[in-house]
Amino acid sequence: MKLLPALFLSALVAFSMQAKAQDARAVDDAKEAARAWLAQVDQGKYAESWDSAAAASREKVSRSAWAQSIGSVRGAQGAVKARASDTAIFTKSLPGAPAGEYVVLQYRTEFANAPAAIETVIPMREKDGTWKVSGYFIK
Q: Is the pLDDT of residue 2 over 80?
């Protein structure tokens, strides 16, 4: 009878390790999507950043409204002088967002006009398995 609890515990540990590995892979993929998206924004390609954003975001905000919003927020900050990854949190729910898989990424960023900013980039997993940015904020 002691064998059954031991087998259960072993299966639970194995499942937990597999889930953590999947989460780590998701975080890596989301970081790569965020890096590519931020490169567009850093180059002032705000409308193009809408093209590569998550479908859920594109459905809610027009291309021109997105470009204007991102442009006004980022334009005021000036050029990026330095950016360092700070935190990455995998989650399956966010307030006010549809159910799905998200990674909340925060970067400590130094802009020309804002030397100590925190950028938050939120990629989400699309239906096809790719990661696309669904949210962007600067504090």
A: no
